[in-house]
Amino acid sequence: MTQTIAEVELGPDPRAAYRDTLIDLAAEDPRVICLDSDTGGLEDTFAERFPDRYINVGIAEANLMTVAAGLARRGFIPYVHTMATFATMRAAEFLKVDVVGNRLPVRVIATHGGLSAAHFGTTHFALEDLAVARALADLAVVVPGDGRQIGAATRQLHELPGPAYLRLGRSATPAPPMPQGSAPDFRLGRARTLREGTDVTIVATGAMPLLFALEAASRLAGDGIDAEVLELHTLHPLDRDGLLAGCRGRAGVVTVEEHRPQGGAGDAVAEVVSAELAVPIRRVAVRGRPGARVAGQRDALEAHGVSADAVVEAAGRLLDHTQNTDRKTR
Amino acid sequence: MAAPTTTGPPHSPAVQDGASDGASDGAVDGAFDCALDGAFDEAPVAAMAHQIRQDVIRMAGGPEGAHAGGSLSCADLMAVLHARLLRPGDAFVLSKGHAAPALYSALVQLGRLPADELDSYAQPGSRLFGHPAHDLPGVEFATGSLGHGLGLSIGLALAELLRGGDRRVYTVLGDGELQEGSVWEAALLAGHRKLPNLVAAVDRNGLQITGGTEGCVALEPLDAKFAAFGWQVRTVDGHDLAALHEALQPSPDGPVMVIATTVKGRGVPFLERKVAGHYAKLKPALVQRALAALARAAKGEPS
Asked: In the CATH hierarchy, which top-level class contains the domain B21-298?
């Protein structure tokens, strides 16, 4: 675990990995319908295999959600495709009322999550989507941090009786290194331990945050600080037991995510942990207003508060804090 | 393609409950049979419309009042649909959900709801909200937020086509509702796909909360707009039961949009064409006045 992010090989293209699984699912399950909103990449793949089950509603995200609700009401499982910001902001009320309000098994495939389309500009940033998706309460929310798990995540979400939100990045990101001897397994609703540690716990959501967390843990280890790294890929339902077990007795918890601090993964962790444990939580999240100048995903994140440096600093502050307080109160 | 034949996936509680059939089997219950032979017997439909109006007034006389004007304007439309046109398996979506009192009355008359439940309208503990909730028998989707019903109906219609069925989907929209952009996203898609099993009707009563639709944000020429979007447009007198019955037939050439020209508050003189009649909380004396006017109108006497 001493490689830097730049040295790690790229994982799979997230949209392609998802699409391959969707096509497999469609072959297995006649209830699968692909509802497109002119996103590109489905019309020459899914549509060629299953022309009857490919419906392009056009560039119309509100209607995307309502048509999906109608189809789901009659027993189909619609997979709707748009960008994360449009799914949760432009179409928010249609998602809330028609899909989630009826607890219908619609799968919202939200691409371009976070700053993964950073070069597209501010209209294409999705830094509030997880807050909206979580606030809908009955919507399963999954953010795979490892492209190799997207297929498994898609398959496990397919089995849910209610609606689901799958947030994907736009392009491939470096594949996080696996703990020795472990496979990149995915269990819906279960936080994944990527590194065990006893001093602080870093909880990461999303691909780039996970890489930052692992790099930070390596650097902290060099300073003699033993950090645990949990990947929290499922924000709803939340892995309460896993989070409590992973945070109990630590000097503090650092959350890191590709989202604003309001309502995102850090808040989700705090909801569970703060109710049970006297462990301070620091959120590493996107601050300020990215988008003044073009920057790539990683640079934009690092310039706005989300980086390995930020995680290291947050962990260090928690440990300083610990030295100044009575650990028995924890 | 192989398609599911059940009304809902086996794992989905949301579509296994009593609401899963939605309005689909309501039309065969009770006293109202389907007129499949083409003959149109107006009397039972007029009776249903009359009962809808009486019930709307009673609900408007309840502690919370009700959306009286728009429920009265679509009473004839609702009666034709529920007494005559909805066949077993057909779906109905009330896109203008604030006309819930008219829908509740129709569901009572079809035997889907107990009659005395109307007394609980908008009261604590009742299932009858001011806008229909989705766990009510005969209601497929909660509506009330405007601009949803057409898209929902398209989803139902597409599902029917995918399953190779011949069931129809009917929806009733408000005219003010047409100012919602999502209606036009849906209208574009339905026209593009030439859905042969979708029939929509606009309750064109011409009024919304702040005044006339044309003075707020003009909708005309409405027929030309929908025609340009690929719909079969039929403009009719929305209080002529036989004309409505004819206009609401589906077309193999594509989705049908019936522009039903109506009078807001129809049947109650002090509410007719009144902006303030959109939402009415009627005192007992006004309830009596309204019911008396409805009774006279039902007998063909002048109001």
From this structure: alpha beta
